[in-house]
Amino acid sequence: MTVIESLLELQEVDGRIRELEAELKDLPRRKALEVARLSGVSADLQAAKAGQEYTNNRVRGYEEDAKALKEKIASLKQTQAGLKSNKEYQQYSVQIDLIQHDLETAENNQIAAMDDMPSADARILDAQAKYDAEKDGVDQFCAEIDERIAAVEAELAEAKKEREAKARVVPDPAFLLYYTRLSTKRWPVVVPLTHDGVCDGCHLVQPPNVGQMADAYAKMQGVGFKPAQIQCTMCGRLLYRD
Fold this sequence. Notes:
Elements: H1 3-81, H2 86-115, H3 117-168, H4 173-182, E1 190-192, H5 208-220, E2 238-240
Parallel strand pairs: 1-2
C-alpha cells in the first residue's frame, strides 16, 4: 500500500469521525429547541390558568362584597326599627338606600365576572389539550434523540479505534504528521490533482512542475520509490494523480 493510499483510507475514517462529532454536537441542540418549544406551550397553559384564577377571584371578591353589604343593610334595618325619631329613621333610610345601590353594583359585577368563567374554562381546556399533545410528541422526540446520541457515541468510539489502526500503517511518519497538522485547517487534506492540473480542494491551477511530480510518483510507486510530498501551491493540500 502506498503512502497516499494509506492516507486516503485514514481520511475516509476521519471523515466519518468528523460527521459523527458534528452530529453529536448538534443532537443536544435539537433536543433543547424542542424542550424550549414545549416551554412556550406550557407558558400558554399557565397564562390560561392564571386568567381562570383571576376570574374566580373576581367572582369571590364581588360575592364577599355583596355579603358584607347585605349584612350591613340588615344591621341598619334592625337599628332603624327601634328608632323613635322620624328624622333619625329617615337618615337611616338614606344610608340603607346608598348601601343598597352599592349592593346592586357588586351583584352586577359578580354576574359579569361569572359570565367570563365559561370562556376562561374553555381556554384552559384548549391550552391543556395542546400542551398534552405537544408533550407527547416532544417526549418521543427526546427519547429518539437520546437513543441516537448513544448510538453515535458507540459508533464514534469504534471509528476512533479504527483510526488508530489506520494511522499505524501509514508508511511515512512525515506524511502522517503533515496530514494531521493540516487536517485542523483544511478538509479534506488529500485530494486528486485533475488531468487539467487543478487542485480538487481549492480548484487552483497548479504550475506544470507539480503535475510532473504527481505523474512521476504515479508511475514509480510500488518500485521502492520514496515519494516527496506534492502540495498545492495555494492551500497546501496533498495532491495525487488518480
